[in-house]
């Protein structure tokens, strides 16, 4: 059970027939999380949810599940073979289709290679780079949530007009799998640092992700 009573639910595609990689899936989840902010700006739960831990739940679904979520109004983002769907925050426990999806088993092949989406950004449009610490051995579900935390904090810092221009440009972004030394080298230039609360998988306070 999440440590907060509100979460932003995110579903990622796990399709054995056409599997996406870990890195694509993490980036798709991060971009879906931020796109939901612009798609549902008037949702009242944003203001109650964001200052209290920015809890997210990443769940896995089949192609039919992602299609159903899109039909229900979820924001859907595709990165390579990866697909992710997101809503604004919801009270926990979840209801509807998202509740039926599983959290456990959200693991995909790690390539260790950077992935990008709508890159490079047009002139004058912000661009997002997310660094994920590979030394922590995070599962795809865990890493996707950490990438989404970093992307969301970065998107909020842009302000409404810049956020809109970024989304209209297709959300130019890169995800960088980084070893511990590379994370440390980029940390001074990061605008966002994500430290885990320690509820699952890794120790409390671990630096999991950065946004540049």
UniProtKB/TrEMBL annotation:
Single Gene Ontology MF annotation: peptidyl-tRNA hydrolase activity
Annotated catalysed reactions: an N-acyl-L-alpha-aminoacyl-tRNA + H2O = an N-acyl-L-amino acid + a tRNA + H(+)
Enzyme class, broadest EC rank: hydrolase
InterPro entries: Pep_tRNA_hydro_II_dom_sf, PTH2
Keywords, comma-separated and alphabetical: Hydrolase
UniProt entry tagged with the keyword Transmembrane helix: no
EC number: 3.1.1.29
Keyword Cell membrane among UniProt keywords: no
Name of protein: peptidyl-tRNA hydrolase
Source organism per UniProt: Galactobacter valiniphilus
């Amino acid at each position: 059970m999440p440590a907060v009573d509100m979460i932003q639910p995110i579903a990622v595609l796990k399709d054995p027939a056409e599997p996406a990689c870990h890195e694509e899936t993490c980036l798709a989840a991060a971009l879906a999380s931020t796109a939901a902010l612009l798609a549902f700006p008037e949702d009242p739960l944003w203001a109650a949810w964001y200052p209290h831990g920015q809890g997210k739940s990443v769940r896995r679904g089949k192609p039919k599940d992602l299609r159903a979520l899109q039909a229900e109004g979820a924001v859907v983002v595709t990165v390579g073979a990866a697909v992710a769907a997101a809503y604004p925050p919801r009270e926990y426990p979840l209801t509807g289709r998202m509740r039926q999806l599983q959290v456990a088993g959200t693991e995909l092949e790690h390539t260790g290679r950077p992935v990008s989406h709508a890159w490079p950004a047009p002139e004058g449009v912000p661009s997002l780079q997310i660094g994920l610490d590979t030394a922590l051995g995070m599962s795809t579900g865990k890493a996707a949530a950490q990438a989404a935390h970093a992307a969301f904090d970065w998107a909020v810092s842009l302000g409404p007009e810049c956020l809109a221009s970024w989304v209209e440009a297709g959300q130019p972004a890169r995800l960088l799998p980084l070893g511990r030394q590379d994370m440390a080298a980029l940390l001074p230039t990061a605008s966002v640092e994500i430290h885990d609360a320690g509820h699952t998988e890794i120790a409390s306070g671990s630096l999991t992700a950065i946004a540049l």
